[in-house]
Write a structure and sequence with these properties.
Layout: E1 3-5, E2 10-14, E3 25-33, E4 42-46, E5 59-63, E6 71-74, E7 78-80, E8 84-89, H1 95-106, E9 126-128, E10 164-167, H2 168-171, E11 172-176, E12 191-194, E13 203-207, E14 217-221, E15 230-233, E16 238-239, E17 243-248, H3 254-265, H4 279-284, E18 286-289, H5 299-307
Helix pairs in contact: 3-5
């Protein structure tokens, strides 16, 4: 994979820099994008200021502070608040490719915090070049009528106050990754090779070695800078020992997996090179989840929540 600066693919500019409390709210007006990590970055809808045109649709918004590096594709003209940048592609990119770059940008969150904002450094952040975009990110959207569409129309909210704790060992069988050595790989082959990476679903190579793990599981990095990066693997694969394999004890699909992977990734701040997330610790680690009336994980809610999000039609 070849990495290049953000500025080689996108024109990076500062946003509208408006203050919401000085604007007129309008439920049918323009989207106001702020530094929030929710609702595609949209925190309100406003009447257009008379002195300023909206920012163009088809651009990516990136939070320079607050929920730093939260990155979203905006599909309609919009205005923005302070410390928000917008990226305009210098070349033609599909909606899928732009969404892929949102993920790549968001993966750099760990580099920043309130004391170190992504302002001057944003154009220099390294992302995969266009030729390194994986094939799955180049596929057409599941629907061409509404690329930002949802699979279900109702809106669901998260109320974590009533979530319940569960141990990973009660939800998954956890095993160490297995596969050929990296020196035996040559970039070709039938099966993906998953290693300790935060990009491309963890896939860093391919192999013709017999697949050591079945599809329908979650791969989780156990150490290093990419610790706790979790990805749903939808085809048979091989991996390094730096990756642990979570085989579900319940019926898992890609929507439930995306919900769980997001929560698993929240564990990364607990671990480092000096404190690895080994199998013994993983099994005893607690994850809080939505629960049903029987005090069991509410997987139906998790699936429907993901399906209710913008762009879920393109998953």
């Amino acid at each position: 994979m070849n990495l290049v600066p953000v500025s080689s693919i996108f024109d990076v500019r500062y946003g509208s820099n408006l203050e919401l409390n000085k604007l007129t709210l309008d439920p049918k007006g323009f989207a106001f994008v702020s530094r929030t990590s929710r609702n595609n970055g949209v925190s309100a809808r406003i009447q257009a200021p008379t002195h300023l045109p909206p920012l163009p649709a088809g651009t990516i918004t990136v939070a320079g502070g607050g929920s730093v590096m939260e990155s979203f594709l905006q599909t309609e003209p919009y205005y923005s608040g302070r410390d928000l940048y917008y990226l305009t592609p210098k070349i033609k990119l599909s909606t899928q490719e732009l969404l892929y770059y949102c993920v790549c940008l968001r993966a750099n969150k760990y580099r920043f915090n309130y004391g170190r904002q992504a302002n001057r450094t944003l154009p220099a952040i390294l992302i995969p070049d266009v030729n390194s975009i994986p094939l799955w990110a180049k596929k057409e959207l599941a629907t061409t009528e509404d690329p930002s569409g949802k699979l279900v129309e109702h809106n669901l909210t998260l109320n974590t106050s009533n979530w319940m704790p569960f141990k990973y060992k009660d939800l998954f069988e956890i095993d160490r990754g297995r596969g050929p050595r990296k020196k035996e790989l040559n970039g070709t082959g039938k099966f993906p090779f998953v290693s300790a990476s935060e990009f491309n679903n963890g896939v860093t190579d391919r192999t013709d070695h017999i697949a050591m793990h079945e599809a329908g599981v979650i791969s989780v990095v156990r150490n290093g800078n990419s610790v706790a990066n979790a990805f749903f693997q939808d085809e048979p694969f091989c991996s390094t020992e730096d990756v642990h394999i979570f085989t579900p004890k319940f019926e898992l699909n890609k929507y439930i997996a995306l919900f769980l992977c997001t929560l698993i990734k929240k564990e990364r701040y607990r671990y480092s090179y000096g404190r690895k997330w080994g199998i013994a610790r993983m099994k005893e680690t607690i994850i809080k989840l939505p629960a049903n009336d029987d005090s069991q994980p509410d997987f139906a809610f998790m699936e429907n929540y993901i399906k209710s999000l913008p762009f879920s039609a393109s998953i």
